Structures are given as C-alpha cells and as structure tokens.
Amino acid sequence: MKNRIEGEDLIREARSGNETAEKLFYTNLIVRFLPIVKCEIGRCPPLQKEIGCTEGMSREICQRAVEEIKTICPIGNEQWSLMRAIHILRNITDDFIMNMLVDLARNGNAEAENLLFTIIRKKLIQWIESKSWKAPTR
Questions:
Q1: How many C-beta neighbours within 10 Å does residue 130 have?
Q2: Contact 112, 104 (CB under 8 A)
Q3: 44 contacts 97 by C-beta, under 8 angstroms
Q4: Residue 110: which of 38, 52, 51, 50 has the closest Cα?
C-alpha cells in the first residue's frame, strides 16, 4: 500500500512541474519494468541460448520504453496511464525479440525460425479476433 501511495504522490508532484519527482518516477518505472522484460525474454529459449538475458540489455529495453512513453504520453498529459505505459513497453520488448529472432533465423537457427513464425501466427490471430471479422447475422 505504501508503494502505491508513494507512486501516486510522485505522479502528482511530477504533474505539478517538479522535475526531481518526474525523474524519480521514471527511474522507478524502469525498475518496475525490468521483471516484465526479463520474463518476456526468458520465454524465448533461442535468445537465452545465444545471448542470455543480461541485466544491461533488459535495462536498455526499459530505458527505450520510458523514452517512448515520455514522447507519446508524458506524465503531465491527461492521457497518461500505467496501462498505456505497459503497452508501450510490451511493444518495444516484442520488437526487440522479433528483431533478434529474425537475425538468428537468418543465421540458420531453426529453433529461432520456428519460434518467430509461432509468434507471428499468434499475433495475427489476436489481430483478427480484435477486428471481429464475423459474418453479419440476419
């Protein structure tokens, strides 16, 4: 409970123009994002085998996500939300994973190629389901 209250206080302070609170908020956001990124990379055995999951790489992905969040929906913006920030993080993490899998697949890694096509298929199905492509009922 205390962390939630501190987070809300940081957001309030950052929105009021306190630059220190804003920097601290984004630093805390990176710390909160690290486990998500590590988990996503951990789901890809080819990446684990080839590059492992280094703290520095995960932190870099989180930093890129925070920079994107600052651009798309800064904390002072009324549209800012943690859910939106997490969606941005997931998109950047997915892009990183896909690019790494493409590179591995080009180098002949069959496991990376199979995982890449599995991910693409899953995303395509999710996109089709979100578009509700159903025949109209009469």
A1: 8
A2: yes
A3: yes
A4: 50
Distance CA 71, CA 92 (A): 14
Residue appearing with tokens 């590179």: 103
Mean pLDDT by 10 residues, the chain (138 residues): 65 86 90 92 83 78 94 85 91 93 92 92 87 62
Residues contacting 15, CB < 8 A, separation 6+:
75, 76
Backbone angles phi, psi at 109, to 5 degrees: -85, 105
Cα angle, residue 40 at apex, residues 93 and 36 outer, rounded to 5°: 85
- Burial-class residue 58 by CB neighbours within 10 Å (0-12, 13-18, 19+): buried
Neighbours of 30 (CB within 10 A): 17
Report the C-alpha dihedral over residues 10, 14, 19, 20, rounded to 10 degrees: 0
The length of the chain in residues reads 138
pLDDT of residue 1: 34
Residue 53 token pair: 């999951």
What is the model's pTM? 0.80
For residue 123, the model assigns a pLDDT of 87
